[in-house]
Amino acid sequence: MEPTGRLRLGVNIDHVATVRNARGSAYPDPVRAAKLAEEAGANGITAHLREDRRHITDADIENLMEALTLPLNFEMAATQEMQQIALRHKPHAVCIVPEKREERTTEGGLEVAREENRLAHYIAPLREAGCRVSIFIAADQRQVEAAHRIGAEVIELHTGAYCDFHAEGDFDKRDAEFHRLREMASFAHSLGLEVHAGHGLTYETVQPIAALPEVMELNIGHFLIGEAIFSGLGPAIKEMRRLMDDARQEA
User: Fold this and answer.
1) Quick one: pLDDT band at residue 15, thresholds 50, 70, 90?
2) I want to staple 136 with a disulfide (CB 3.0 to 4.6 A). Which of 73, 97, 102, 196 is the partner?
């Protein structure tokens, strides 16, 4: 079946918590940000509970699960601790991401092909609990095939390299990475996987990704929270929503 319907926008609220934690205060509140995102047209909320709790905390996940009417996409590393937290809350979706303590942000996609057996057993209880399991991967055929074999329902293609090359002005590398993203979106869809994309997307880079017909959801956070400093969170999300919709319609 060909992809249909409006492209969904998941708003990542991690960096609202980053600002809050810089002062150790109770504000700004990620739940309030999630509510504003919903009012502005978001289709879901993404939150990454990192092992070091550098932004989102356990209490944030508790509060989001209680307060949200939108689906929660719970990003997490493939650890036993995170699996138990996900099984306790049973969010709409879990997205398995690579995680290193020393990184500033997620630097690449998950290495699924080398850990196929472990990850297949890891995600099985999450699927049995009713969570949609997504795997965050680079646009690489080996990783797409491995994600399919382990039983993931969704892949999220890592758009970070594409965005970085654009920011650096290396348009040849940017275009080559976009070609890989386009090819792997099509390939993943042919396997029956639902395709999402995200990481580093901005007003300048979102439209080519939004125009890919197999991509059903974009997850965007850091840029929107930064833009909100100048324009407000609601207007920032509405502008991103407009750009996504325009690109989809033109495609």
Assistant:
1) very high
2) 97
